[in-house]
Write a sequence for this structure.
């Protein structure tokens, strides 16, 4: 793999840490800025919405930019808004920085995905995508627990400073190593690429990615409270549980990158079918610490392994839309990350049982199985029709 891929993964690690670390910083932000916990928690939703809106918009705006300029510009803006967020005493300003950070994060990730797949031969694109997304999984393993600890020790502002500092070496390396030429991007046609993205195989892949990621984050958003309220683990065990999920996610992404190329092979089909079973098992065994940790690791591996494969599939089926393909993969993932916890919140708010978040995940994962079945049935019917039967 080209060394520059790991530079991009470092930047994605910093951005992933920023996206997910707020779950451990909400109480401190609420106290320091004199707002309610609910208002502070809304910063997470602001980031998700910014990612969903920002990905296609930023990808379209930067489609004709030289890749070095696009990557460096997005990353520099990400640093600046984190510095502003670290020093502001106004919650409205902090909220605005989270939206802007998400938008430029989405833009960076969209361009980074297109660069990553362009740097390697077609048969290695799955692995290149896995290397890039390993930054997100490593942020779950190390970045998020570290951000929570840093927030406890030095206040939530220190976590924002740390993210900004972490981006600086990646920014310097982007200036030195990113492709400098426009790579023929002056001939990019956004309208033509949009037609490619409207094709049914691309749509199926994006729907499946959204549903799988919705299942993942419906439970991930409630994993800490399941651990403390259902399993009755001490608060100090929560970072370890989150890190266990992240370890599984890292192994899943790495394995998927080496073994799949986005095709609906037997391994991917079996993994998708195993997802609802795993989430149901987590709901059923959550009162017990050892099974909770084991199933959490397994589901982290399955969910992120499938998710990274589906990102590769979106990029593969949208290969004629190199500028927008990565952005719509980002939209699909973040739509799931936004809607999954929202649905889980409605379910747990109605029943008062946090285990129902895992049952929501199981239901969404069962929908993913149905999407796969419907997609394969359509492909089979099309093949039979083409053969003249």
């Amino acid at each position: 793999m080209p060394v520059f891929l790991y530079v991009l993964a470092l930047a994605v690690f910093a951005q992933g840490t920023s996206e997910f670390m707020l779950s451990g910083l909400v109480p401190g932000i609420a106290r320091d800025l004199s707002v309610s916990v609910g208002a502070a928690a809304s910063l997470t939703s602001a980031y998700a919405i910014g990612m969903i809106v920002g990905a296609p918009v930023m990808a379209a705006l930067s489609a004709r930019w030289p890749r070095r300029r696009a990557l460096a510009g997005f990353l520099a803006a990400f640093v600046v808004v984190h510095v502003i967020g670290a020093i502001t005493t106004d919650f409205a300003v902090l909220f605005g920085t989270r939206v802007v950070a998400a938008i430029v994060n989405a833009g960076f990730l969209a361009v980074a995905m297109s660069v990553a797949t362009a740097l390697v031969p077609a048969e290695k694109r799955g692995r290149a995508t896995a290397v890039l997304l390993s930054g997100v999984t490593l942020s779950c393993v190390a970045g998020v627990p570290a951000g929570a600890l840093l927030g406890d020790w030095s206040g939530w502002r220190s976590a924002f400073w740390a993210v900004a500092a972490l981006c600086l070496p990646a920014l310097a390396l982007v200036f030195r190593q990113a492709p400098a030429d426009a790579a023929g991007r002056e001939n990019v046609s956004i309208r033509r690429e949009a037609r490619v993205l409207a094709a049914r195989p691309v749509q199926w892949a994006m729907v499946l990615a959204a549903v799988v990621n919705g299942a993942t984050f419906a439970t991930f958003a409630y994993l800490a409270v399941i651990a403390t309220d259902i399993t009755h683990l001490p608060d100090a065990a929560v970072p370890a549980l989150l890190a266990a999920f992240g370890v599984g996610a890292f192994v899943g992404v790495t394995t998927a990158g080496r073994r799949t190329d986005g095709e609906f092979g037997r391994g991917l089909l079996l993994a998708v079918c195993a997802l609802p079973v795993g989430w149901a098992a987590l709901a059923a065994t959550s009162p017990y610490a050892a099974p909770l940790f084991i199933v959490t690791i397994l589901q982290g591996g399955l969910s992120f392994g499938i998710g990274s494969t589906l990102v590769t599939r979106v990029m593969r089926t949208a290969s004629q839309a190199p500028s927008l393909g990565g952005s719509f993969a980002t939209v699909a993932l973040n739509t799931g990350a936004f809607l999954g916890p929202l649905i889980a919140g409605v379910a747990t708010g109605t029943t008062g049982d946090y285990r129902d978040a895992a049952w929501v995940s199981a239901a969404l994962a069962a929908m993913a199985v149905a999407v796969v079945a419907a997609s394969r049935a359509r492909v089979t019917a099309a093949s039979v029709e083409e053969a003249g039967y």
User: Anything to note?
Assistant: The longest helix spans residues 356-387. The radius of gyration is 20 Å.
